[in-house]
Amino acid sequence: MDFEKIVDRKQTSSVKWDRAEKIFGSPDVLPMWVADMDFDNARPIKDALRKMIDEEVLGYTFPPDSLFTSISNWQKTKHNMPTERENILLSPGVLSSIAVAVQAFTEPGESVLIHEPVYPPFFSMVNKNERRVFRTSLDIEDGQYTMDFDDIERQFKDENIRLFVLSNPHNPGGRVWSEDELVQLVELCKKYKVILISDEIHSDLVYSEKTCVSPVTLDDSYKDWVVTLHSATKTFNIAGVKTSFILVFNEVLKAKLVKVQEETELDIVNTFGMRATEAALSESNEWHEALLEKLEANRSIVTDFFDKELPEVSYMVPEATYLFWFDASRLGVDDDKLRETFAQTGKIGLNDGISYGPSGKSYMRLNFAVPKSLLMDGLKRIKTVFDHYSN
Ligand SMILES: Cc1ncc(COP(=O)(O)O)c(C=O)c1O
Predict the structure, then answer these.
(1) pLDDT tens digits for 166-192?
(2) Distances (CA, A) of 377 to 327, 380, 381
(3) Separation of 96 CA from ligand 1 center, angstroms?
């Protein structure tokens, strides 16, 4: 477990490193964008895969009981969510699960409500499935995103919303929604018969001052309205294995999901993903706890740097996720040029806020899940950009 080791990821088909030149238009950009950590994987995961390759034949496989047990135990101990095998559906990815949920719970042309700003594929998954996307903007209170319940209720009513997709915790703002907020949201869902999809892929990456709550655990009746999506891939940096899970406690909702999964073969996950997920959830707790300490230390490095070196730049302190959302409006650069500006002037690859929706305007997203030396390098590059534009 060495979170300071620099792993050379170039020429490994890494989206983060090997797509950077294409995305940012420059070969020497330091990539601190897509939510993928520059940390080597936990040893039990690598050992499990190595053992498999050395000792087994890679033919057809089915999910073993031990995989379901590892997911149940994780949900129970980390998320206070007692989960039986029959509540778990495997799925290649959280985005695949969103697509399945859209098809299972809505008809073409029906309406889906989503926060904005939010992780951009939420919009595209709904659009690609030919459902109508409605957006409800997040407010900012005390430097953190909050939900606008009046607007949510108005849209539930006026637009006949059938599905709400929630990022819990929130990407890109790093907000951990409070119990009160989640109760308000699910109560509205119950009132207007809207299914809530709670995407909890970042829910294991929560800082010590907060606890991420799964809305389905708040009241037994919420099981009829909430479907939870989760995965070991973000927590353990194994996104390449394409394996995730859906947690569903209502038989009718489950039957609808299973039908779509079976029709599309999206109920099958790959051998490596199953093995890696099980090793992650059942054997890599020590790595997970050390990771949280490392990320919390990095979060302090980032906020201290901004406070000291860029005091005029506002930002959101992430309560979860390794994503740092800061306001670049002082640069006076148009939104469609911000990403390029950081890439050309600072040689740093960041996500531009506008791609998360219109209210992401002027923001940039930094991924700080990297060794300290890379983080310091990245922060200096960001400062170079602000210094350049203030001269
Ligand atoms: C909120 C959120 N949901 C889903 C995903 C992607 O999940 P998957 O790779 O399992 O499709 C991400 C990736 O960053 C994410 O941030």
Answers:
(1) 999 999 999 999 999 999 999 999 999
(2) 20, 5, 6
(3) 10
